[in-house]
Design a protein that fits this description.
It is built from 15 helices and 15 strands. The chain is of the alpha/beta class. The chain has a nine-stranded mixed beta sheet, with helices on both faces. Strands 3-2-1-4-5-6 form a six-stranded parallel beta sheet, with helices on both faces. The relative contact order is 0.13. The structure holds nicotinamide-adenine-dinucleotide.
């Protein structure tokens, strides 16, 4: 297959927090993979910036080590790694002080695209924004990439948006949600808006319900301080699950263009109903199968923070009135599994009679651990003996059709970083979107706090609290995924 990758111009990318976990695990490996695909043109600089006092030589060694650790399969060629490291530089900068800024300014080229990746804790975002402007580093071709968490609630998100708006135009701010960079998430838009087949059925008349699961097997050990103040609602639902819901539920934008897409997503968030307390289940994992309990992981025996949330919500508009959306996410669950399932309604009348059983079309979009899309269709079970019906998957995984190279070729961070360099904000969240998502999330969290709600315990490596299953069963439905 002929590659149709759009070339990029020479750029400078500064990674604030360049020695941190995210930089080592995701950002640098992503840049290395883009370099291998010829997407880091000569003259481009990748500048690590952090507080540690390192030389560029020492930082290059750190980068080479990170590549070996996280993308060792493709970073085994020392010559390629060396060539990549030629682009890599390091400046010691204290975002909160005055050290290092002039050295950073001296590293930057005057006329190229300049991106600053804020891969530091959220407490440092404002200092960085102020520092960049104070030291004259912001020009028309400057972009900043801001990581989650984007605020802790509506008030803090608004304050952060206001602060960033003092130094940057909204068109320069890239709020990253790596779920939007996933191949299958974008494929979801291609499937919806590039085919005649799905869109006419994509509404409450034909869809029974939609469910989104983002399940992890990992616990919170090592991130306890952050997680204890966040919980699953803030850490996952407000951003990742909300973004997935938006892409599933939004109206077709007029163009695949940043503001057209983001306008439609915003309308979905604003159409969400307030979640009723009996339509939400919070959970917290307990010790099982050798794993410690959540409360041990965060070292707080009385913690009321949720490591699991399942909820039912409704998008109140003409398209979706009557079709519930169920969202579920949690840590220390049975499997690492992110998927969206669109469950279509029964046929209005079964000509095959009750003995044929109940069969429904389902469109399953698998995001993790493997990406792919499957459509279940009902057919006749082959062979004599009458009309027995069976559901078979029509597999739309692109790996099958387009080859494994395409499937494994790029990770979400690769795509999103390149979008920043190209100046394409389509897959990044706008200020009003983030605020609308907090405006929906805040009352739920405040309700828990006001009631002193205690999350339901669930065994580590199981399916979550029984109440989450009960919530579905009461409505005659059941969760997909997690090996069910
Ligand atoms: P980390 O603690 O591993 O690294 C933080 C980095 O920031 C270090 O390089 C440190 O030197 C630098 N830093 C801190 N204070 C600084 C200052 N005053 N001036 C200059 N540099 C400073 O953190 P991380 O896990 O890499 O996370 C970075 C950001 O990305 C956080 O906002 C986090 O919430 C977000 N994030 C991380 C992950 C992940 O998988 N690690 C995933 C999603 C989002």
């Amino acid at each position: 297959m002929v590659s149709r990758i759009i070339p990029v111009e020479t750029f400078d990318l500064v990674i604030f927090g360049g020695t941190g976990d995210l930089a080592r695990r995701k950002i640098l490996p992503a840049l290395f993979k883009r370099f291998c695909s010829g997407q880091v043109p000569d003259g481009s600089k990748l500048i690590g910036a952090a507080r540690s006092d390192l030389t560029t030589q020492a930082y290059r060694a750190l980068v080479a080590e990170a590549l070996l650790e996280f993308v060792g399969d493709i970073a085994s060629d020392a010559e390629t790694v060396r060539a990549f490291c030629e682009h890599v530089h390091y400046v010691s900068v204290d975002a909160r002080g005055e050290t290092g800024w002039s050295a950073l300014a001296a590293e930057l080229s005057p006329e190229t695209v300049r991106a600053f990746y804020f891969s530091v804790g959220p407490g440092v975002y404002s200092d960085l924004a102020r520092g960049l402007e104070r030291h004259g580093l912001v020009g028309p071709e400057t972009r900043i990439v801001v990581e989650k968490p984007f605020g802790h609630d509506l008030e803090t998100a608004q304050a952060l948006n206001r602060e960033l708006a003092q130094h940057f135009d909204e068109s320069q701010i890239y709020r990253i949600d790596h779920y939007l960079g996933k191949e299958t998430v974008q494929n979801l838009m291609a499937v919806r808006f590039g085919n005649m087949l799905f869109e006419p059925l994509w509404n409450a008349q034909y869809i029974d319900h939609i469910q989104i699961t983002v399940a992890e097997t990992v616990g919170v050990a090592g991130r306890g301080d952050y997680y204890e103040k966040s919980g699953a609602m803030r850490d996952m639902v407000q951003n990742h699950l909300m973004q997935l819901l938006c892409l599933i539920a939004m109206e077709p934008p007029a163009q695949f263009e940043p503001d057209a897409v983001r306008d439609e997503k915003l309308k979905v968030i604003r159409a969400l109903d307030a979640v009723q307390p009996h339509h939400i289940v919070r959970g917290q994992y307990t010790a099982a199968d050798g794993a410690a309990a959540y409360r041990e992981d965060v070292d707080n025996p009385r913690s009321k923070t949720e490591s699991f949330v399942a909820l039912k919500c409704q998008v109140n508009n003409w398209r979706w009135a009557g079709t519930p959306f169920y969202l579920r996410t949690g840590k220390r669950l049975r499997a690492r599994d992110s998927e969206i399932t669109v469950v279509f309604k029964d046929t209005p009348h079964s000509i095959f009679g009750p003995e044929a059983g109940r069969h429904r079309n389902e469109l399953n979009i698998q995001l993790q651990p493997n990406e792919g899309i499957t459509l279940n269709v009902t057919i006749k079970e082959p062979g004599p003996g009458g009309m027995r019906l069976v559901d078979v998957p029509l597999d739309m995984s692109f790996a099958e059709a387009l080859g494994p190279k395409v499937q494994g070729s790029s990770d979400a961070y690769e795509r999103l970083i390149m979008d920043v360099i190209r100046g394409n904000q389509t897959l990044f969240m706008r200020d009003d979107e983030v605020e609308a998502a907090w405006a929906w999330t805040d009352p739920i969290i405040h309700g828990w706090e006001a009631r002193g709600d205690v999350p339901k315990p669930y065994d580590a490596f199981a399916h979550g609290p029984d109440d989450a299953d009960l919530m579905m069963r009461r409505e005659g439905r059941e969760w997909r995924g997690l090996d069910k």
